[in-house]
Design a protein that fits this description.
single chain, about 350 residues, alpha/beta, Arc Repressor Mutant, subunit A, Rossmann fold, 2 domains, 7-stranded mixed β-sheet, two-stranded antiparallel ribbon, binds S-adenosylmethionine
Length: about 350
Amino acid sequence: MTAMEEIHSADYQRMMSYSQGMWISQVVRTVADLSVPEHLREGPRTAGEIAEAASADPHAVFRLMRACVALELVSYDAETDRFAATRLLGALRRSADGTLANWARVQAAPGHWQSWGAATEAVRAGSSRTAEVLGSPLFDYFSGNGAEGALFSAAMTDLTAAIGTEAAAVIDTAGVGVAVDVGGANGAFVHELMRRDPGVAGVVLDLPATVAGAQEEAERGGLQDRVTVTGGDFFESVPSADLYLLKFILHDWDDESGVRILRNCRSAMNPGGRICVVEMVVGETGAPGLDAALMDMNMLMVTQGRERDHAEFDTLLERAGLRRVKDTPIPSPTYPYSVIEAVARD
Ligand SMILES: C[S@@+](CC[C@H](N)C(=O)[O-])C[C@H]1O[C@@H](n2cnc3c(N)ncnc32)[C@H](O)[C@@H]1O
């Protein structure tokens, strides 16, 4: 009989928690879906009270809350049989600046979740299986599934709250009349620039079905008179402007596609114009930590893109007739973001 190899007990624990990681994602998503942070806002409540407020089954909500105690999202008082919000749960509160509620919900929704379900096939093939699994690539899928698409755009707006102010602060807008948020979703990033500089007019370009939320977002921010919302395709063309913002765009695409988007910006750019790419930079900025490495895997699972290092960004820019003139790392608790500025090569 062959002797069984032993697993170190620490490794057993760790591998067990890695293997069950999806359970945690779905617990967090359910908590956000059922608005548990909102239901606990006024103070501790029983599982029955939370269930009633959330229109859910009381026994299932009790089990959900028990898991949330273990995850430190809530605490439990046995005497009153009530659950109370912890500070951690506050990260899922919808009214929190930069809330992660929409992000948690969209990560565990079919577009991402089912694509990740084909992870082994994607690694074997070297590319995302999203088109097979969902019936179309992710952004087309979002166009056809409005609620999930709107959730994704809202999550993008929320993520922008975490670094948008710092990223906008390093972009010099002197002489910029018009800035285009290329693939801007709700336009949160160009809004940041416009708040800093009242002389900047913003254009939000995104797919026609996706860009619908941008008008509403501009109105919410009182910027509607200075924002033009344009439904279009950045592979076809982009509007003329002095500044192009490409935030979290190139990482969705392979090199050929990325060069095409950049070339379209370069050829529509007003004389003296600039392009600002906001992305995480892996490699030279530091070895990618867990978050960056996993985001790169996410790109492999759900898009045709990937995270890149400086040399890879420079290659894309050069192929599009551009050259990098500035590169500013942006402090972030998670990802090694940078604002990369480029101008046309003569
Ligand atoms: C990862 S999101 C980034 C959104 C936004 N720039 C931000 O950082 O919050 C990528 C965006 O590109 C848009 N997009 C995808 N394909 C596009 C196309 N062909 N033309 C215009 N926008 C597109 C998507 O709809 C989505 O809003």
